[in-house]
Amino acid sequence: MRNASQLRGAARTRLVVVAAAGLLLAAGVGGCGGGSSHKSSPPNATSTSGPSEPTPTNSASGSGKWSGAQSIDPGLGVLSISCASTTACVAVDGNPSPSSDETESGTPGNALTYNGSSWSNPVVVDSGNSLVSVSCPEINFCAAVDSSGNTFTYNGSSWMSFKAADGTAQLEAVSCASASFCVAVDNNGSAVTWNGTTWSSPQTVDSNSGTTSQGTIMNAVSCPSASFCVAVDGNGAFYFNGSSWSTVHALWNGTEDTGTGPPAGVSCVSASFCVAVGTDGGSYTYNGTSWTTEASVDSPDGAATSFTAVSCTTTTFCMGVGQDNNATAIYNGTSWSPFIPVSDVQTLASVSCPSTTFCVAVDGATGVLTWRA
């Protein structure tokens, strides 16, 4: 059984191996401690035609297929992806620390954009830290967070100067309902909120930070509206009602035989439908009142596959991605399809589905994969 932090570490360790093999390009960009106060060139201003769309190789269900992995960022690891539409996606990258599962400070965090046909070149957004998560609720707005508690916003053409939102911990994930509302969660059980102008001070969400078997790193957050968010740590879920956070609702009971695992990702369509995925291949579904648990979704060889992330477009379509052989599975509102390996790379780190016929996933290394139905 692996927790979400270990899964992130596995992806980043793989990048270290790549670096050791000499495959990472020298960035040639000087770093400074903390986020840099600057406005970068818009990612799409340096857009170049990327590799042609690979021939689809594997199917996650009978109605759709994934492309092969397409290398878009040979210098660093693509850690997070968010698509506002089928023609507007933003991916962010970071550099792993060889000695831990955390991202390394002192190296630039870049953003890349997709316009429906090609990916831009990487553009430096944060000259001093890795970007670990991005959320784009609209074509003309994204928020990204880095490994030192800084945040950056994108207006569709350029990235704004950083704002120091959380000086106490590393931000782990961000979710935006609109350009005027976002929530970011950290690895110390706290959350910060964005009101369109400023970020709040860190607010304690999980008061048991660091005291449980899984710790209380907030692994993921999803906000379908300004009045409802769900955040998950290694034990359970927390609800935000627009002003305050609930206490934890336990999801995982701490035993391996449940076949679900600590929650690693969550995606909410509304206040009455969310899906959280576990690191032992199981899932948890929320109906607005209570959670139901589905034990391991097995891969075709019968082995449980670890979920790393999930993206839900409707109550009848969620795409889950996993660690082993880039496995993916689709939830139809009732049940999951079997896990299907889609690439020879081991881990998919993040996925975003702006429609039921289009998803993009990143592999935590240099590439992206696209699913079309």
How does this model look, in words?
The chain has 373 residues and is mainly beta. The strands form seven sheets. Strands 1, 2, 3, 28, 29 and 30 form a six-stranded antiparallel sheet that branches. The chain has a four-stranded antiparallel sheet with strand order 4-5-6-7, with no helix packed on it. The radius of gyration is 18 Å and the shape is globular. The chain has one helix at 4-20; strands at residues 58-61, 64-66, 70-71, 77-85, 88-94, 109-114, 123-126, 131-138, 141-146, 150-154, 163-164, 171-178, 181-186, 190-194, 203-204, 220-225, 228-232, 236-240, 249-250, 263-270, 273-278, 283-286, 291-294, 307-314, 317-322, 327-331, 340-341, 350-355, 358-362, 367-372. It is 5% helix and 42% strand. Strand 25 and strand 26 form a beta hairpin. The model is unreliable at 1-57, 97-104 and 210-214 (pLDDT under 50). The chain has a domain at 4-17 and 42-52 and 76-266 and 281-307: YVTN repeat-like/Quinoprotein amine dehydrogenase (Methylamine Dehydrogenase, Chain H), CATH 2.130.10.10.
Give a quick summary of the entry:
The chain is mainly beta and 373 residues long. The protein has one helix at 4-20, and strands at 58-61, 64-66, 70-71, 77-85, 88-94, 109-114, 123-126, 131-138, 141-146, 150-154, 163-164, 171-178, 181-186, 190-194, 203-204, 220-225, 228-232, 236-240, 249-250, 263-270, 273-278, 283-286, 291-294, 307-314, 317-322, 327-331, 340-341, 350-355, 358-362, 367-372. The protein has a domain at 4-17 and 42-52 and 76-266 and 281-307: YVTN repeat-like/Quinoprotein amine dehydrogenase (Methylamine Dehydrogenase, Chain H).
